[in-house]
Design brief:
With 345 residues, this protein is an alpha/beta fold. It has two domains: 4-188, Rossmann fold (3-Layer(aba) Sandwich), CATH 3.40.50; 196-333, N-(1-d-carboxylethyl)-l-norvaline Dehydrogenase, domain 2 (Orthogonal Bundle), CATH 1.10.1040.10. 49% of the residues lie in helices and 11% in strands. The chain has helices at 19-30, 42-51, 73-77, 92-99, 124-131, 149-153, 167-177, 190-213, 216-237, 248-259, 264-273, 278-283, 290-305, 310-320, 325-333; strands at residues 12-15, 35-38, 67-70, 82-85, 108-111, 140-144, 158-163, 182-187. β2 (35-38), α2 (42-51) and β3 form a beta-alpha-beta unit.
Length: 345
């Protein structure tokens, strides 16, 4: 890894050209970095080359001439100081395996993907560490926080956090990404930052369902608050720091995703609340709503760890067991009465 003093010469690769990967690649390109950018879809590469625009995933945003798209993943990961990985969680493992023999041992790998793998219940850095064992464990980091891609691409002021076990790695990434409109904080709680970013998508589906049912702001506020309690309980069981969930990657990302019109997970939930079928909703989408797969992962993980997560359980029932939203809501509201501040509940 290059030192902070040489950061301007950093060699950067970005893997994944969805809306978030494109926005982050563009941020770095606009800072003057040459960004080698792996794009899965040939038509997306052609559009970036020809129009300097990702018409599929981030339309109407002009992209930096410092972004160099390629359909060859080796171009994005070989001989790099930092590789940013921004692919959907369900293809993280196959992507990690593709790059495992290509990436240099000293490369810093940053995950900006949010999710938990269905089969292993690993977070995204967990998958990366397992598949790219040649990289020292402390070279992995995660970037997360309340950040819609389109707003970042439009230079709206945004604050995120980057988590790493090594302070120098966190500082390197912090300085790499920071701009006058993109403020980056550091954290050493990787698991907490990843859990906040993943589980909030489940709660966002629930918030969308509430809005789709037309149940008002009281209901949504209660849902967000109790959803945060569930995230904290799971975090405690997995060794995360409680204070992480009051920060940007916890409460910040949760509030944004549960209330923002740009949230795909909230949109899916809203359409479910309006009585649309999940398969029909998904057929109309070109981008991934991570909360659908993550709901199954979190539900299974909560059962394995013995963590009570009633909202997650009911969203699982809606998505995977065909329970109606109104029936799920009734079950939540008629649970045994409890104290609010009880870390075991």
């Amino acid at each position: 890894m290059k030192s902070i003093s040489n950061i301007n010469n950093a060699k950067i690769g970005v893997v994944g050209a969805g809306s978030w990967g494109t926005a982050l690649a563009n941020l770095l390109g606009n800072k003057g970095f040459k960004v080698d950018f792996w794009v899965f879809e040939k038509e997306v590469k052609e559009d970036i080359d020809k129009y300097r625009e990702n018409k599929v995933f981030l339309p109407d945003i002009s992209l930096s001439s410092n972004i160099f798209p390629s359909n060859d993943i080796a171009d994005a990961v070989k001989e790099k100081d930092m590789v940013l990985i921004v692919v959907p969680s369900h293809v993280m493992r196959i992507t990690a395996k593709k790059i495992s023999g290509l990436i240099d041992k000293g490369t810093i790998i940053v995950s900006a993907s949010k999710g938990i793998e269905n089969s292993t219940h690993l977070t995204m850095t967990g998958v990366l560490k397992e598949c790219i064992s040649s990289i020292p464990e402390d070279n992995f980091a995660v970037l997360s926080g309340p950040s819609f891609a389109r707003e970042v691409a439009k230079n709206y002021p945004t604050a995120v956090t980057v988590a790493s076990k090594r302070p120098d790695v966190a500082s390197f990434i912090q300085h790499l990404f920071a701009t006058q409109f993109f403020r980056v904080y550091t954290n050493d709680d990787i698991i907490g930052v990843e859990l906040g970013g993943a589980v909030k998508n489940v709660i966002a589906i629930a918030a969308g369902i509430i809005d789709g049912l037309g149940l008002g702001l009281n209901t949504r506020a209660a849902l967000i608050t109790r959803g945060l309690a569930e995230i904290k309980r799971l975090g405690k069981a997995m060794g995360a720091k409680p204070e992480t969930f009051t920060g940007l990657a916890g409460a910040g990302d949760l509030v944004l995703t549960c209330t923002g019109d740009l949230s795909r997970n909230h949109m899916v939930g809203k359409k479910i609340g309006e009585s649309k079928k999940l398969k029909d909703i998904l057929s109309e989408m070109c981008m991934v709503a991570e909360g659908i797969n993550t709901t199954k992962s979190v539900y299974d993980l909560s059962k394995k760890l013995g963590v009570e997560m009633p909202i997650t359980q009911e969203i699982y029932s809606i998505l995977y067991e065909n329970i109606s939203p109104k029936e799920a809501l009734l079950k939540l509201m008629t649970r045994d009465l409890k104290q609010e501040i009880d870390e075991h509940r």
